[in-house]
From TrEMBL, chains A, B:
SUPFAM superfamilies: FAD-binding/transporter-associated domain-like, FAD-linked oxidases, C-terminal domain. It comes from the Bacteria. The keyword Flavoprotein applies. The keyword Phosphoprotein does not apply. Belongs to the FAD-binding oxidoreductase/transferase type 4 family. InterPro entries: FAD-bd_oxidored_4_C, FAD-bd_PCMH, FAD-bd_PCMH-like_sf, FAD-bd_PCMH_sub1, FAD-bd_PCMH_sub2, FAD-linked_Oxase-like_C, FAD-oxidored/transferase_4, Oxid_FAD_bind_N. Residues 36-217 form the FAD-binding PCMH-type domain. This is FAD-binding oxidoreductase. Keywords: FAD, Flavoprotein.
Length: 469, 469
């Protein structure tokens, strides 16, 4: 019964770290966007991987579902329990040590509960770069980043979290501790378990530690905002920038005029970069390992070529760190401005980069036909083919009322994504939020393979049930 | 019975492509290094993925083991059947179409049986680069590269084959065709099946197609050979080169003086780069997206810094493509010179880059204690922590006689690799060759996870049996 299981938990990790009072438990139950609140039998706060293993063994023995949780900043209801109250939340936040930094191997070994920002800082203190960067970096944990294969603004040059990880430590669904903390660039000795746990959202086991890749710190970064006539021109500029700037191009973000106007409306103190409005804007970030002069030269070359080719309508180059921050602030304030404007229907989609303009044109038209005047707030990581394609109601329709169409809107957008051979979750994951949509967009054979793996590695079905599958 | 199964095969793919005569079959049975010859019930040569699926369905129904085969250039006896004669060889060589090239998305979709060199050429013809490059590129297939997660000389900058693949098409062990040919930089919609099949050496299914990443073609490449006092100095130079040259450093190979002398002995027509001998040599390759001048400047800066720091004893910079080829030729002739010198005991190991010098020192000493005068022919991809650490007998001991100690030599080298947290197969895979060694170096929990996955995806055990597990 309940008491026996919790008594064992208390014995293992100390009574102070087994939370059962409502007031203590509730902060662990609600999803980041505040749309969902689950229930839990308890919150368990182990101190180290061995305690995690011991707790999962207890959960397996007592058939108690386990919901691993990091910073609880996920956007797909992946790290909070369902409403049954049967599950325990396994918080990894006390596993927060940076275990080792190796300057020659360019690796850092960390606990899963380390905050991303702390990892970035530790890399910087050692004269290196950990390039994962995203809005929640001040509170998300690396374990959560790994479990969801988080993306962010550095993917164009450095890849997703998956590409930034060399090795993992994992507690299996049986409560065994697997030490896969390898710091190797090459290792072909069997199945790639690392990449199976990465992105599995805690449904196959609990990530407790990782070996991360570090990179030489660039000597200078420089930012520009280029005004463009269309999404198609933004694609042409991306190609031109990659050819001109090569590997120094580290970021390429797209924002529509709708986005800039929203930011201007809700954050009037942020400077507006251009005197006139333009249909689209691309934010370019260049990083040089040589000098600031080098980055400036390549950026100027890129912009000159774009102006000559008739691609750019206007451009501003940040000439100071403050100006660069101001340009990025516009991009970063889009989700905040949207939230201030009222609830909207969000999508995190990707298509092949070459098809983005066609996707946007076609999907805009489909939505306008269904809801004349509908507002599309489209921005994101164009260099990765990843857009946040968010939908707000036509002027005059209350935001809350429009949410009733969420299912219909999702259907139109995601069907269109499928038509363009894209993904309905580019960087956020599936969680509970998109679980029911998955069977519509995945072939039966792929779902069968996923289910076979789930059944093989978690035969009791206790790991984060109700997520993904 | 035999006849019925083969009759079905003939019906499916045509009698001409079901080979059963000894003379037709035997070219498919021997391993690349000529140490092993298996037997097969037949060789099946399907024309397309649908035929592959149909054949695997037949094999599953008749419980016939399947050995997928590409260019048969693998080095660990992974693509040839065992001696039972029960298995069929499934040759992918007729699946050799380049299906599509997308210049904006920077992707190429290919059949698994495409020759690597043909893919490189097709990328070049489209003004782009497919950076996978290895000795067997003229005859290996991309399907084999994927199945073994091949490495090569471009890993430092571009990653292993795994990092160069966005999507896969696979025939499962049940003979179902999974279309995972996604050309997406970001896709977080469930378990990472792609990376599970990559590196699985055909033991979980048959790769029939892939979406590959392409890169902008560098405008210039430049090569230098730097003479060094020790392996430790080679490590310090690597760090210095990465800091000075940043992402333009695309190759960093190590060769010992023993290697250069072997090449000089067997290929006296190749120019020797230095008037004096030095303990170690590093081959540096820089690629610039800007200009040749840019690459030259960064290379000269690197070498000047290395000379000033007392790291480099001497250096030559190639000032023409012919000179660059001559420097690479030395590196590429090491395995050939070794073969000409007589059979030796090969290892394909990796350790964390920071520990390479310690590993070499310690392992050299262990071997010298066991076999005084033993020759270590050590070279490889130092930038990836991957060495080919090959052992030849002391002068006077016949090479063939020394092979009797192969098991003892492997034990010393691989135990030492394990002491340094390394891998006993960095880029070649496990195959049948290293299968029996795996349990010594993998934890039980990892082997159990691998076996659970194998049983889940290939419950009949028909996919390339006797390989890896």
């Amino acid at each position: 019964m309940t008491d026996l299981f919790l008594a064992h938990c208390r014995e293992l990790i100390g009574a102070d770290h087994v939370l059962t009072e409502d007031a203590d438990v509730s902060p662990y139950l609600s999803d980041w966007r505040g749309r969902y609140m689950g229930r839990a039998r308890a919150v368990l706060r182990p101190a180290d991987p061995q305690q995690v293993a011991g707790l999962v063994q207890l959960c397996a023995a007592h058939r108690v579902p386990v919901v691993p949780q990091g910073g609880r900043t996920g956007l797909v209801i992946g790290s909070v329990p369902d409403e049954s109250g049967r599950a325990v939340v396994l918080s990894l936040r006390r596993l927060n040590r940076i275990r080792a930094v190796d300057g020659i191997n360019r690796t850092m070994t960390v606990d899963a509960g380390c905050i991303l920002h702390d990892i970035q800082q530790a890399a910087g203190a050692a004269g290196m770069l950990f390039p994962l960067s995203l809005a929640a970096e001040g509170s998300c944990t690396i374990g959560g980043n790994l479990a969801t294969n988080a993306g962010g603004t550095g993917v164009l040059r450095y890849g997703n979290t998956r590409e930034l990880c060399l090795g993992l430590e994992v507690v299996t669904a049986q409560g065994e501790l697997w030490n896969g903390l390898r710091g190797l660039r090459k290792d072909n000795t069997g199945y790639d378990l690392r990449d199976l746990y990465i992105g599995a959202e805690g449904t196959l086991g609990v990530i407790t530690g990782a070996v991360l890749k570090l990179f030489p710190q660039p000597k200078a970064g420089i930012t520009a905002l280029v005004a463009l006539g269309s999404c198609r021109d933004a694609l042409a500029l991306l190609k031109l920038a990659q050819e001109t700037a090569g590997p120094t191009l580290t970021g390429y973000e797209l924002m529509s005029d709708v986005c800039l106007r929203l930011v201007g409306k809700h954050f009037p103190n942020l400077p507006q970069p251009f005197p006139q409005t333009h249909p689209q804007y691309a934010l370019l970030e260049l990083s040089s390992h040589e000098s600031e002069q080098h980055a400036v030269r390549l950026l100027e070359e890129t912009i000159e070529n774009a102006l000559e080719a008739g691609l750019a309508q206007d451009a501003v180059v940040a000439t100071s760190i403050a100006q660069s921050r101001a340009l990025w602030a516009i991009r970063e304030h889009i989700p905040l401005a949207q939230a201030a404007d009222g609830k909207n229907i969000k999508h995190d989609i990707s298509v092949p980069i070459s098809r983005i303009a066609d996707f946007v044109e076609k999907t805009d038209a489909l939505l306008a036909r269904a809801w004349p005047g509908v507002q599309v707030v489209c921005f994101g990581h164009l260099g990765d083919g990843n857009l946040h394609y968010n939908i707000a109601p036509p002027a005059g329709t209350p935001h809350e009322a429009f949410l009733a169409y969420q299912g219909d809107v999702n259907r139109i957008v995601h069907d269109s994504v499928a038509d363009f051979a894209g993904s309905i979750s580019a960087e956020h994951g599936i969680g509970a939020l998109k679980r029911d949509e998955l069977p519509r967009y995945k072939a039966q054979v792929e779902l069968d393979l996923m289910r076979a793996i789930k059944a093989a590695l978690d035969p009791l079905g206790i790991m984060n049930p109700g997520k993904i599958l």
